[in-house]
Records
---
Amino acid sequence: MRQTALFFPFVLLAACSSGLTEATFPTGSQTVITSSNLGSLYVVDEDGGSVSRVSVESGESVSYPVGVQPERVARAKDKVFVTIRGERSLAIFTESGTGLTLDQKFEVGAEPVGVVAREDGKRIFVALSQDNAVVEIDGSTLAEVRRWSVEGHPSWLALHPSNKALFVASAMGGGLTRVDLESGTAEAVALPEPVGAGASGQDTFSRRLTGDLWISADGSRLAVPGLYVDNLTPADDPAGSGVEVSGGGYASSGSSTIVTSRFNPGVTVAELDTTGVVTGTARTVFLAGDSPIKHGGEIVRSYPTSVSMPPRGDVMVVTMEASSTAIVVSMETLATTADDSSTDTGGSSGPLSQGFSTAATVFTSMNAGPHGAAFLDDDTAMVDNFLDHSLRSLDVGEGRRRVNVLLAGTSSELSMKMEGGNVFEGVTPELDADVEAGRKLFFSAVSSKMASDGAGVSCSTCHFEGRNDGLTWTFTDSVRQTPSLAASVAETAPYTWTAGVDTIAAEAIVTSQGRMGGSDLTAQDALDIQAFIQNIPEVDVALRGSTDASVVRGQALFESADVGCADCHPAPLYTDNDNHDIYGLSGVNTPSLVGIASSAPYLHNGSAGTLRDVLESALTGAMGSTGGLSEAEKDDLEAFLLSL
């Protein structure tokens, strides 16, 4: 990486009362961390298949190849750990004054994402998103010690400084799990439920957790990023070929006023005792605010991708990859109920009236795709911007000063904005130019080409990581489940559930210009988005390639004329690229079944929560025919589907 400006000095901090030797030691999984001597940064480069060591003083960078799709990095003592999602592996490096040496890589399970370690290095914890499990690994022998089942694609981790509790956030279903490392039990953590207010007065917000969580250095607070989505209030669904579309869709509730809308970012903060047990009532801090980016828009409100805290723990830093923004947030809540009307200017649509809390916030401009942050000291953080392969400094000290101005009541506002600091420019992009350009559009909630101002939506909001969000959306004339884009999509035309759009580029126009409220997306822009979507890798489902006897028997049933699955879902793409009248709906496009294990809920309307529910729905022959199968045969058929 090339340094474009001088950088802040770093200092080594004293130990925390929690027992941490190093106050900046990362308690949560991250894409960027500091080295043990705070003189370097380690950052994963998913595109380049490497981890880079970046000098804090000079900005010089050395890349170390590690494998396909590195995801998160952690360290303990002189060891650095990197999850390699595309190879089901964990890589272990030894750090020295001159660089990193790869010790070994070993398999841990399907799609490892989050990784954290005890500061003494005795234990390593890895989230296996497609195994729906978290594993504990002995730091000396590298043997698996324990494994916990955690549903909903567990992806992000935070380890309490006492080493007595591990928190696990799942990408699907909005679930947070606490693992008691003393007793070995795992239990769900109750989170606040902001309610929303749909047209009929019903509760409308669905919670999703969206990134890396954190525990303060003293162990007293847990912070979890998430998005509260109104997917139940009906939205207009523009139809057509993708060439002529009209506005509306689920971005129509975008607003230039900071109120709750269809997409509502927040960070849930919970108080913890000395062993990492949640005490009291957690609160969710609403995080929409004035944009610091000169993109023509006014409001930032996209999903948060990480949260972290400096050693002092008085503020938190939240990254929003789709808005090119990092937010400094006060840990002192300004208001928690609708009774605090002086701070809730949105009336019935204000965040307090919808069940959120508010806090003093400073919105800070970053480069494209801020994904994580590492602290050098209490006042300085470096933010990893994955879309343009850069690191940018964040003056947390100045953010704290501005937050304190807001807390002192000398400003009538709830938030301020400021510019980010120095930039370490990234390595040469590994992707083709059209793929790079398309990815930036796909991940943008602030480009007027993609979405209306204040809507807070990007393609990546619903197609999280290029996949799906696990939600079903209500439109004025139908209900639709979000399909995954991670399964050879280029070969599975037509697109959308029923409209029969012929190309991905045309569908990009339908979605961005019609549903998201964007304007003036060019034909080349749409082709760039198409190029990126065609580049999204398939999901590495846990049973992929299995030759287990149950899978083999299930394949025979799938292909049998009596059951009839293969009539519409023939190999190798498991779609006939056609449409059929089914379950009372005309012209439903046949989806591919590749990677179906990871894309619940199922059917066009999301009415089947599991693959077993799909098989039960086919008992009458409405879609295939499973009525003649025994329970054991349905088990086998389900096993085969899970292996695709």
---
Amino acid sequence: MAEAAAGARLDAALLSVRGDVALVATEDGTYSLTISFNPYRFRKHIKRTIFRIRRVIQNTIWPLTPTIWGGVTTAVIVRVVTAKSGSWWRSGSLANILWKWDNLFPWQQKLPTQVRVGWLSLLAGTVGLAGISFVQRSLLRLLLNYKGWMFLDHGSKPSPMMKLWFIAVRALSGTQPSLYTYQGCLPSLPVPCLKETTRNFMLSVKPLLSQEEYNDMEEKMQKFMKNEGWKLQLFLQVRAMFTVSWLWEWWEKYVYLRGRSPIMVNSNYYILDGVAFTPTHLQAARAAALLHAADKFKFLIDWEKLDPIRLQKTIPWCMKQYERVFDTTRVPGKECDHIIHYDHDPQRYCAVSRKGVWYKLPMQVKGTNGKWRTALPHELEKQMNWIIMDSDSTPAPEGQNAIAALTGWHRGRWAEAREEFFWDGINKLSLETVEKAFMHIHLEDRSPTDLTNQAKMLIHGDGKSLWFDKSVTFIIFPNGKSGMMAEHSYADALTVGHMWEWVTTEERYKGGLYRDDGHCKGFEDSKYEQVDLTKPQRLQWRVDAQLHKVINEAYVANKQLCDDLDLVVMTQDTWGKGFIKKKHISPDAFFQLAMQLAYRRDAGKRALTYEASVTRLFAQGRTETVRSLSIESAAFVDSMMDESCSNVERVKKLMQAADKHTQLYKSAMVGKGVDRHLFGLYVASVGLGYDSEFLKAALKMPWTLSTSQTPQKQTEGRWNPDREDRHAVSAGGGFGPVADDGYGVSYMFAHDDAIYANISSKKSSTATSSARFRDHILRALEDMKKIFSDGSDVSAKSK
């Protein structure tokens, strides 16, 4: 029996908590069983259950609504009941069919005729509306399978047929959709054509491989196509027929959850707050406001009030990833992790940490009227201040202050430690408290010195303070700066970035959440309701010598990983996407080509390049790879390296390469990418027992450049980063390098005159330097800008 601190009267206790039932067994052999009942929680649970049932019905019959159903069926009943017996309503062909239905229910024969007529009218109206709804949803799903609109050139006018398609989609989409309204109307992710995938793959590696290597790869590809290729393709096609997405489950499991490497740096990512804007310099106030805003966003998700994203305000995206933004944790396993999403809890709380001390902060307070309500920002600020004072006055004991280091460790080792030291007692109780929290707030006790230092503190901290298994962690610094870190398996950066943008704009939206002195509005203000607050619960841990040794081992490993990360934030604030768009070039393509040129100068060779795209035009869509290295991009880089090449020729090749990149990006978005298809074929080959040389060779090629564009302006109408809100733009976010001798680059076009990039690599690699690569990118951007100026002299020599 494990010992646990359980109060002054209990020297040791075993705590087993299941919902509202608590069993306490003391050393003297007595037991205490406590069953608690919370009326507030019960009412909220019933309300939530009713809401879910109603939403299931609404989303099933959408675009019809219960109001429309009630109105139409009532009108039908009244019209039929009041009609004369010889009218069409009573004796027409449709009426005769309904009277035949009446024979299917013998119990109705004893009812009055008018009641039977009313019942059959209700049944007919319901079936008719259900049929109309089914046809409308099917037509919308059929229309959404069309993706030709994606390939319309920027600035070009759509054809009459395309205009008609847009009109039809808008007409069938209904009005006032909820968060998951369109989920049942989205088409399934298609299985790409095998010949197209292999052809596009070979084109993508042609600039990278020598002729001998290319011929060898082509020979393996031809062998694959003649033998196991078509069988694996057939398997994927059959799988696609019986699943919403043939890829979703495999991608989550084999790419993320089965990975045994630490998720710190290797899998997680971070997002920075405003570069030149900090709404308050009070740490407690900033933490309270961000937490309050996150809770509001969670409310929009839980009650499906968040508007679904629609491209061009017409074409819906899959919103499934939003289900697990909050109330989610990743649990380690010896061979495979798993994700747990805790259901909506009306007594929700947040896990808060500072200096290694962990707290349970309730998000509900009892108002002066005796009713429970959500805590307001000024109330949360008081709680944050108390946590800061408590952690300063009573620091965490040695060992307990580094519990979180286990979550950044090797996944198998963390699973073993969890099984050995956290299976019962106070450790289990505290662990469950952290994991069931709707999110994690970390109050850092050090302020960042610059953007680069801030980025490093967000992605890994000190290696022992951040709970890397939690879906979302907000980090707030003493000077009021902030940022966030996210676990990657449950959702992609586009989804979490949307949440972070909404939260940070909420701080200043419609008057904002702060007073002029930096405190949250209502802080110690008699004009606001002042209630007695229950102090946050300080979590306890039992750390014996053996667990202390394991924690220290995890921290040492984490520290090595942190120290090896070479991270730099690049700032280019003299020009940006405004100039690029004037040249009729995609800003994304322009920056991708700049990175190709920069890497050529940095390493003297080309790099297999990964750029993340999205496939959320399909149900349960996640990401697809854009292979940015192409024959066209290689030709452009060669022209920049050739001093004898004219600027006119360079511009021509740049335009060709940019057009090619845009085509590749759009193809990836519509499900015609290469890499997810190859991944699916490989998983199928392993499951079916095929040993494919081609798939192994294709998938083992390292992504020397792993890149992604950080999304922005996903919150329509809340801010304008290109104009009045320029001062509040972020420098984006970043992630660790994928290859040991490669770079990870996440970039953002903050506004028309600013470009930021978060560049990562490993210090242990002699081939890379993030600062050097940053300089090469800046130089490449300037050189590419110069070629549009007549008479400019562009030096293409590598320094």
---
Amino acid sequence: MALRPEVALRTLSCGRWESVLEVIAPVLQKGTVAPRILTKALTSLASEGRAWTSWQVLQAMASGGITPSAHHCSAAIGACRRSGQWPLAVHMLAFMGHSRSRPNHLCLNLALGCCSTNREAAQRLLVSMQSWALVPDIIGFRTVLGSCEQAGDWEVALRLFEEMHVAMVQADQRCYTALIRAFGKRDHWQPALTTFAEMCRQAVPLDQITYCSTMDVCDKSGHWQVSLQLLQALKEDLLIPDVQSYGSAMSACGTGAAWQLAVALLGEMEEAIVVPSALAASAALSAAETSSAWQACLVLLEALPHWRLPVTALQAASAANALRVRQGSEDAWRLLERIRNRWQSGAACFPGSGVCLPDAVEKLTTNVPGAQALAVGSGVAAFLKPAGRRSEALLEKLSSHVGLNLQSVSRLDFSTSGVLLVALGDANSTAFRWIQAQIAARLVEKEYLCLVEGPAMGPAGVEGCAEMPLRDIVGPTGTRSEVASHGRSARTEFRVLQRFATPVDSGEELMLLRVRLLTGRRHQIRVHLASVGRPVVGDLTYGRRWKSFLPDCPRLWLHCEHIALRDLEGSPFAAFAPLPEELEVILSRLMPKAGDADGGAKAKAMEFKGSLHCLLQGYHKKCPGIRDTATATLQHFLPRAACLFVCASISGIWVRAPETRPLQAT
């Protein structure tokens, strides 16, 4: 029986579009359907985000001689916006031009909304409005300014303001705020303040969002006093500070190490009956941590339950780090252990806290395809990440293997190899928060090996430290890091293991360093060493590239060798990753500097020590896969001339010489 077009399209509008579209396509081609029914069907498809189905309906209408109206196309473009398919939305606009259907402001504004994540496409659409004799309205300008805000493209945003002036379109509060945030992405705090002053001059209404955006820009640029002045101006403007306003001001206090002001602002919030948020509490704790005011940190931690806020890992780390600086590591460990016990008992009120099942742990102790386990402990595991593989991809493979959403707590860059630390649980699990708190409190030992080039640092064994604040900058090729006086604190310690001569006599040399991270900023080792004129060999972002002494180095010469922390039961946990073969090949080709001939032996001895520790732990945990890996690693580093061999049992390990009694027992 034939299906009437009205019935078919009403069925389509009810969501049964999969089968009905095939039935109504011939009917649409005959052109016997009322346009209002098509509009209703397309609106229903838009609500479900069925962009491609909407596009097929438009094509069927054109084939049947029905010219899609602006209402039809706006509904179809709305489906593109809901599903995030901006190329199809642009194609629909071009289709309207070919089908003699003129777009209106609604169609173009919807298409601009689709292109909000693609600044260039949004700009082209804004320019193309002139070809349809349309003047962009405030909604169109606001949408494109939002895309400039996300990209930090303040130059284009300024040109848009000029176009708004020519088109006699009055910029509103949202337009100015987008420009201020675009300046903030590039740390241009003075133009942001100038824009804020222009808003006042133009009598544009100000709200808390505008104030907070300007305060954040000044805070990130290191001008925290200006942020506090803006908070005072907000009050004088008869606006009531909200939790976001107070949070921005307290973050500024952290930048200026003015923890007393941060605590005073918390008290002011309570007087104003503004319940502190987790962000505001974290900002106050961070301010106290910056000044190592551990007593204030402990008081703030105890106040969190009063505000019905759980203790997060970073909040616990702020207090523990302040305690570590003033009282020592043991007091910091005791504090974290008390908080861990609260997490385990559920007192921290984390709903749906994830846990790692015993069978998942058992799967990790066996061979995981494509992933080499280095160590497994209570709530934590370490795997060997090769260079040229994303940490997220390896973690996804592990999660799929064990059937659990594992979390990485210390990722490695794509071109870096070594120990990848994994929490055996999701982001709400006690295991993840426990490890994250240790890392943020600077209680985790993390060591790298790297080969750098540049002026000599001194003889083998010399130690040094690079302590320079770092900040992230977003550019066209991705996010980079750079040294900035108003950045986040970062400290890198290093020790020269061995020095090598360069292929050409240039007065410089190659140096093998052991690096210890005390903070974990983006590209920290690479940026710190490059900033002191000793970039890492093979670094295509911060290094010398083709001007390097080793331009044929196949990869970044950076390897995470060792990580030590405490597992969920409080027991010591350590993982060691041997140097990859491709990096050893590079070292074998180099000529040691005169007087540093024993440097390589010292480096081997230190790696042997780490391998032995890993082997002992593997036997202790009784994990066959890890035992095999550790044994192979140990045999690789044992000098052949020593004629040593390993004799192991369940209770321990001995290093023996042939036909002698045990030399050492553990």
---
Amino acid sequence: MHNIKIYCVLFLLVMSLDLEAATDNKPQNIIEMSLGNNDGLPNDSYWQQKLDYKIIAKLEPKNKYLTASAEVTYYNNSPTDLLILWFELPQQRFKEEKQKTSESNDIATKYLQVTDKYGTPLKVVWRGTFFSIEPTQPIKARSEFVFHFSWDLTLINRSDALQPRSGFETFDEDKFLFGVAQWFPRAVAYSAARGWSLTPFLGKGEFSLELADYDVEINLPSNYLVLATGQLKNPDTALSKKQYKQWLTLTDTPVFISSSVEESKGKLKNENKKWHFEAYNVRDFSFAAGNNLIWQSQKIKVLDKSIRLNVSYPDNGRWLWHQYALPATRHSVNYLTELLGVFPFKTLNVVNITGISMEYPGIKFVGFRGPNVEVNKEEIKYTRTEKYDVIGGIIHEVAHSYFPMTVNTDERLEGFFDEGLTSYLSYLVEQAWNPNFQSFYGKPYRVFEANHKVDYSAPYQLADKVSNKLDSHYHVPAVAFNVLNKLVLEKHNFNEILANFIKQWRSKRAYFKDFENFVSAQSNENLQWFWHYWFETNKRVDLSIDNVELISASESIEFPTHQTQHKHKPQENIAAINYAIVKNTAVSDPSQAKLLGNSFEGLNLSKQDQYTHFSDDVELAAFHWEMCAYSQMNNSHQILSSGVKFTVNNIGGIPSPIELKVILNNGESLNKKWPVEYWLINIDSVKSKKSLQLEWLFEKNVKIKCVVVDPRRMTGDTQRENNYYAVP
């Protein structure tokens, strides 16, 4: 026993030093972290920890106060005996921040008691938001340990400047809405890759968690509606008779279930009701509770699996949610299931609550709301951004059902992994809703908004270290996956590879290195350069074409380089064009917007509105070669050319496949692609050349009007004006 205590003290000291140093981790220290083999599949020796939670909680809405107790079983599936266990209560961070500013810190957890199954108190040592517990005996490898927690939690306001992911929203007349998350002691991830995942919680980083089974009882006033992770086990007693009947008879026709607003009438506020939920093999448990909620529900069947969809929003600011929330949820589940396979949850809840949006297993908190207008009012004013913020916010959080909910990723260490893939998937879902969707992440030709900034940070950084999390962890990785899908892996189906990765790693922990190895192995492509430049550096794609030389049958004709050739271009204001793109200048002329086709809004006329045919791409005005194609410039003096020689410069630093389009005088065009290997010094190196001299011989003689690099706008090129050459 004495030796165990010595080891524990030493271990705590090491962990303390790790906590101090973790914020200074350089990307190269974690890039090789993996739990898979060289093909990106789980190792034969793969193991992971598991827990069972049996929680009884009581929420006092008036005091914003929660008390709870839990019986916890920790299954040590590792090959190592454990002397201590680590847990985390992230909301302690907000208490610390309030103390620094002398603000009221009457939030977070004030008391925490831990005992073994016999009631013997266990030693607790705090380290920031983490705390360790010391069992009376080591937890042997492949054995289990049962113990008990008792704790409290005073919730923080969701609108607080610290941007908490959990808390409450207050309305008039004692109306409250709670989004309760990070509310119980959650086990810190322990893996073969890095031991305990003790990277500190500083606010922007998210979470690294273990899978667990949950049996949760929530007690609160009877006029509250509760939606939570998992399945409701006592609908007959938790719901009113009217609600229960609607709940039982739910079909694929959307239904407004008798809401908490209606059900609260005549009920005593101090009369408590129990809600009982069970969830299996999930990484977290969260719930929402409110006494002014509108509840809309539907049951759909996808791949022979019934899924219950619940959408709930406060009795204010509700028009856009009434119009679009349930359709957006249904559309997301249908599209993602078709793309990636079985949807991971039997019940999916989407709740509108103020503050930043956040994903949890089977329940999503979405902060975007829109105007406060009555549901049955026909003429209302809302902006295009408000509409697509609500729809896009829902789509994004639903897409998180795969990363990190199905494939359990380390959000705090590799936040770009789950957010990047989720933003990529969201882009696909959004474009399937409407090809004119105001997508904020994923469009390759809009990436300059992020990585052209002087302080842009490489994605492979901790969330609290990057200059702009939305740029580095959402937008640029989403663009990278789009480039990978549409340009780099054209001969392969990246989405099929992604679906297969989810299948192989379902309910397992994966690191980004595992994903890299899997995609490379499945595609049989050397992608080391791609992962390095797009994720480990803050470089960008910026290809320029120069030294264009037309080849005739008898001799070559050399034209001036870029310094003088600009005078031959059609006149345009590049700064104004880029400004128009950044500001999402919309064109309402349907001829300039993309056709709706079989998109959701295309097939559902009732969901179309004044913004359906708007486009924020400003495509015809923004790119030089279209202007060349439509130019009436007289160059009839040109001779016939049998080919073209040219130089491509890699100004931005990221090598890219080169697509070249040659536009002819007769309106036709020729296209050719050079693979990225032309840039690489050798096939096994990420080092690349800064310029290439290329030659293209045509099958017949032609008259060339202009030449453009990246005509499909798929490389993520951040500077369009140097992609174009007009023949004088």
